[in-house]
Amino acid sequence: MFTDNIQTFKQLGQQLADPQWLDRTFSAAIERQYRENSWFTPEFCRHALAAIGQMLAPEALDAYYTRYQDIIPVEDPHRTVAVISAGNIPAAAFHDFFCILVSGNDYQGKLSSQDKHLLPALAQELVKIEPRFAERIAFVEKVSDFDGVIATGSNNSARYFDYYFSKYPHILRKNRNSVAVLNGTETEEELRLLADDIYLYFGLGCRSVSKLFVPKDYDFVPFLRILNRESQPIAQHHQFNNNLEYQKAVHLMNKLYYMDAGTFLLTENQNYASPIGMVYYEYCDDIEAVNRRLETDADQLQCIVSRDPHITNAEPFGHAQSPTLTDYPDGIDTLRWLLAFSC
Predict the structure, then answer these.
(1) Pairing of strands 265-268, 259-260
(2) Among residues 148, 196, 183, which one has the least CA distance to residue 286?
(3) Spatial separation of the C-alpha atoms in residues 211 and 270, rounded to whole Å
């Protein structure tokens, strides 16, 4: 039942809210994950698990139940939903995992080779709370015998997903990026939170801010100082620094202008997707024009952070890497989709 499923996740969230329990319970999975994929540092793995704990806070789950209580089925549908997951950030597949199980369906997950350990560890703790979930969770090397599919990948892989899965009910996700819109009146605390939106997970997430829109007279110096200070946790990461030094060399050799924030380079570019170690910016004094462009390019964007009232659907600074249960990837209400096709 939906209410019982919600209660199970509520207990998991309460456990994840205890940092000592989190460290004790997931230390082995975090260590193994880091050994196999050094982009998933222990600090970022813990941050991802703590963010899941916030997502599953009691008040958040109560509000979530209220949102859907009029359409939830009386009995669990038990349709099998296959999930092909991305591996760009730790536990990237958790939101789909949650939606499938809480809707009363069965989860069949093909995890990315880059992110194989945290979600099974979470599933293990969930089964300890509610043993009946053991029969509803399967991690597989190849998906089969499913009723619906959720697949996340690149724009290129999305074409293959569409070919293989078009005959099934499906959600197919492509590349997305996130942006920030600044007007120059942001406080130091807001800029600090924006730095988190940029550097957490090395900027590899679809909710990682990779592009700034700023007015033509914008003073970057305060933000460069804050970004340099806040992003020090990644300053000694070998792979990240290799990418950063490569971008510096490319820009120097080609005599391209950039600003150096220590751990990130900022350069002017109209694209949304920036390389590792880079943040793009674009000047624009017409905030309404920015808003129209972002609305036009909505299918390329995951998250917009800003406090400018002219920007539609903007989220607060610091929110990008701590999504709520209703911050659905690609803006598609996953739970409503699951309930529609499985009932």
Answers:
(1) antiparallel
(2) 183
(3) 9
Q: What's the CA gap between 139 and 30, in Å, rounded?
A: 18
Domain residue spans of the chain: 2-175, 177-305
CATH hierarchy code of domain 2-175: 3.40.605.10
pLDDT tens string 79-131: 999 999 999 999 999 999 999 999 999 999 999 999 999 999 999 999 999 99
- H-run or E-run covering 96: helix 94-102
In sequence order, the 6+-apart residues with CB closer than 8 A to the CB of 6 are 61, 64, 65, 102
Architecture of domain 177-305 in this structure:
3-Layer(aba) Sandwich (3.40)
Starting at the edge strand that comes first in sequence, how are the strands of the sheet with 137-139 ordered? 137-139, 106-110, 80-84, 148-152, 170-173
Mean per-residue pLDDT, 27-45: 97
